[in-house]
Specification:
By secondary structure, this protein is an alpha/beta fold. The protein has 15 helices and 7 strands. Strand 4 (142-144) and strand 5 form a beta hairpin. 31% of the residues are buried.
């Protein structure tokens, strides 16, 4: 997602362009986007946390694009994908002859990101030996290339991301606590897909259209049963898993119809009663079925919310929206009526 023409920040068009690749309108996602809008105009360091596949890089891009640095470079480094002995050179560069194989001078990612934004993905994988140098460049905005004593000054806004619990790692001395606090200036926690199920239908339609256009195989119909199964699935791999599964489903689709790509044993985290009708009807039936199985217990480890992979408050909101109410204990009412006769 690159820079765009200047638009007044209070315009709706500006907001839509800022988040053009972020799909969804759930309250959980909206909370994240409000945080992005607040922190982006500053130069504060941001730490994006969340499970693998939740879209951390998209949020980092949005922060960059909403900042005064949007016309400058957005440089990405995946700290988990680079061998540990090469990561220092990748970040800070090296001089010719600094080590075996250094046949020429190399400019590091911090220099490339000067006046722009550096996105350190999987920052929790940075080795302990390199953490002091990273801390220094965050605090002082200066560093030396490998094999050099010359200090380089840079003006870089850092956005970091991780699926790890850095606070717990710092507590166990697996990650420098001072570096953790320096990264954690403005934390943003991305919700997993199972906590924003309201967005799944929009995501499915987006990926179906995108993949269909790319491979020249448009999908014209998504059956209610397919959409219901996709909405109820827990998505342990989050949006990345959804995107890959939809691509497979589009490739396998026949006659413009998208069939359920989930294996039968994983189509849902709960047993789904046979239902015909709309997606709303199916969702209501599944929630009712689950509530009946757990004796209408909503919260707790054995409650309906846990079995459905939802927060307790989210389930209560859905029950109200679908008109689901706990039935009265008719047997007690009948018994009371009999005793009065």
């Amino acid at each position: 997602m690159g820079a765009w023409q200047h638009i007044e920040p209070d315009s709706q068009d500006w907001r839509l362009r800022s988040f053009e690749r972020i799909i969804g309108r759930s309250p959980a996602l909206e909370t994240v986007l409000v945080q992005v809008e607040r922190v982006a105009p500053t130069d504060s360091t941001v730490l994006i946390q969340g499970e693998t596949g939740t879209g951390k890089e998209l949020i980092a891009h949005a922060i960059h694009n909403l900042s005064a640095r949007s016309g400058r470079a957005f440089v990405r480094v995946n700290c988990a994908a680079i061998p540990l002995d090469l990561l220092e050179s990748e970040l800070f560069g090296h001089e010719k002859g600094a080590f075996t194989g250094a046949i020429a001078q190399k400019v590091g990612r911090f220099e490339l990101a000067d006046k722009g934004t550096l996105f350190l993905d999987e920052v929790g994988d940075i080795p302990a030996a390199l953490q002091p140098k990273l801390l220094r460049v965050l605090q002082e905005q200066e560093f030396e290339r490998l094999g050099s004593t010359r200090t380089h000054k840079v003006d870089v806004r850092l956005v970091a991301a991780t699926h790890r619990d850095l606070q717990e790692m710092a507590r166990q001395s697996q990650f420098r606590s001072d570096l953790y606090y320096r990264l954690n200036v403005f934390p943003i926690q991305l919700p997993p897909l199972r906590e924003r199920r309201e967005d799944i239908e929009a995501l499915v339609k987006h990926f179906v259209e995108k993949v269909g256009r790319r491979i020249g195989k448009p999908v014209e119909h998504i059956p209610e049963a397919t959409m219901s199964a996709l909405t109820l699935y827990d998505w342990p791999g989050n949006i990345r898993e959804l995107q890959n599964l939809i691509e497979r489903a589009v490739i396998l689709s026949d006659d413009g119809v998208l069939h359920n790509p989930l294996p039968a044993q994983t189509s849902s985290a709960v047993s789904v009663p046979p239902v015909t009708g709309t997606l709303k009807d199916t969702e209501k039936a599944v929630i009712l079925h689950t509530l009946e199985q757990v004796g209408w217990v909503i919260g707790g480890p054995r409650g309906a919310a846990s079995r459905l992979g939802l927060k307790r408050t989210t389930l209560i909101h859905r029950m109200e929206k679908l008109g689901i109410h706990r039935p009265r204990l008719r047997s007690l009412e009948n018994a009371a009526g009999s005793s009065q006769q």
